[in-house]
């Protein structure tokens, strides 16, 4: 019983430490989210060429990696995190420690504990990055109609498209401000608008931004009133945003149910293990306990994917 209490205290302390670290990270990101990173670096005395190169380097532009590493690096860049390598290693170590404590409860055997710890560390890291990327994309999508309105008004005032894009980079906060700043620098250095927009789509990963890129590309090739095209696009993006909010409200009950169903088995195991420490010893003694846990986790993962598809709507 004393050993279970020690394990529980270690788990609670690690969980508290992870929560404090994540909250500190979110506070630091919240403090800089509304700052246009490009303008900030320029105001610190850096010239335009240096700022342009550093922003592309931060977003991993032009890096030559394998498919798996390229996907993981792109996920990290699209999440909007710009953490120094030392802090990045510290956060990975915290996630590794939390995964190790969890493996002590559910897995027997040093080798299997190490394998499960490495797997949980990778899975939790990817989940956190995907969550942060989703938040950043949502913020970006909510900013697109305002940015398009700024573009439209600038075009109505008689400014060229390059000047309108530069105005968005100066007037809009991050993340859309810095991304349009990179686009403005690319155009100033002689890049085509099509290539610049597609590069932005790759850096951000928002579908609505792809619509903006296609609209500009089609208008550039066929001609027409770009301001009118952008006005219609702004209305469409606002409509999609409202529809997405309604769908999230309708599916909220299903998402909460999925979370409860995913957490409840682990909480039940910990409660039984705490109250009756020897309750599962007979299962582990048979030698099949680890296989049972792996099978249950696989089936729970399949169920989580099914529930996720039931409450997620792509349109």
UniProtKB/TrEMBL annotation:
Pfam family, one: T2SSF
Compartment(s) where it occurs, according to its Swiss-Prot or TrEMBL record: Cell membrane
Gene3D superfamilies: Type II secretion system (T2SS), domain F
Protein's membrane topology: Multi-pass membrane protein
A GO term from the CC aspect: plasma membrane
Highest taxon in the source lineage: Bacteria
Transmembrane segments: 6-26, 89-106, 112-130, 252-271, 291-311
Domain (Type II secretion system protein GspF): residue spans on this chain: 148-272
Record's keyword terms, sorted: Cell membrane, Membrane, Transmembrane, Transmembrane helix
Signal sequence, start to end: none
PANTHER family registered for this protein in UniProt: INTEGRAL MEMBRANE PROTEIN-RELATED (PTHR35007), PILUS ASSEMBLY PROTEIN (PTHR35007:SF1)
Protein name from the UniProt record: Pilus assembly protein TadB
Gene source species: Pseudothioclava arenosa
């Amino acid at each position: 019983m004393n050993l279970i209490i020690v394990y529980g205290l270690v788990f609670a302390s690690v969980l508290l430490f992870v929560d404090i670290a994540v909250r500190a990270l979110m506070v630091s990101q919240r403090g800089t989210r509304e700052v246009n990173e490009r303008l900030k670096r320029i105001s610190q005395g850096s010239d335009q060429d240096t700022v342009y190169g550093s922003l592309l380097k931060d977003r991993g532009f032009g890096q030559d990696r394998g498919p798996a590493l390229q996907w993981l690096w792109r996920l990290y860049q699209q999440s909007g995190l710009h953490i120094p390598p030392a802090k990045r290693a510290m956060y990975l170590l915290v996630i590794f420690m939390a995964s190790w404590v969890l493996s002590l409860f559910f897995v027997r055997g040093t080798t299997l504990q190490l394998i499960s710890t490495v797997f949980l560390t990778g899975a939790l890291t990817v989940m956190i990055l995907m969550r942060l990327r989703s938040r950043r994309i949502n913020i970006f999508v909510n900013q697109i109609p305002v940015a398009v309105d700024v573009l439209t008004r600038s075009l109505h005032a008689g400014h060229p498209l390059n000047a309108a894009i530069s105005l968005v980079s100066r007037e809009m906060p991050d993340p859309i401000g810095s991304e349009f700043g990179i686009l403005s620098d690319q155009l100033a250095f002689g890049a085509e608008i099509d290539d610049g927009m597609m590069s932005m789509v790759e850096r951000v990963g928002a579908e609505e931004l792809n619509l903006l890129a296609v609209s500009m590309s089609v208008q550039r090739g066929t001609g027409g009133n770009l301001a009118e095209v952008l006005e219609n696009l702004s209305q469409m993006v606002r409509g999609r945003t409202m529809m997405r909010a309604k769908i999230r409200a309708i599916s909220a009950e299903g998402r909460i149910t999925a979370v409860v169903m995913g957490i409840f088995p682990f909480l039940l195991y910990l409660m039984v293990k705490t109250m009756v420490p020897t309750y599962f010893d007979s299962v582990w003694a048979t030698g099949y306990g680890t296989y049972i846990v792996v099978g249950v986790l696989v089936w729970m993962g399949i169920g989580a994917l099914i529930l996720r598809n039931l409450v997620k709507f792509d349109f």
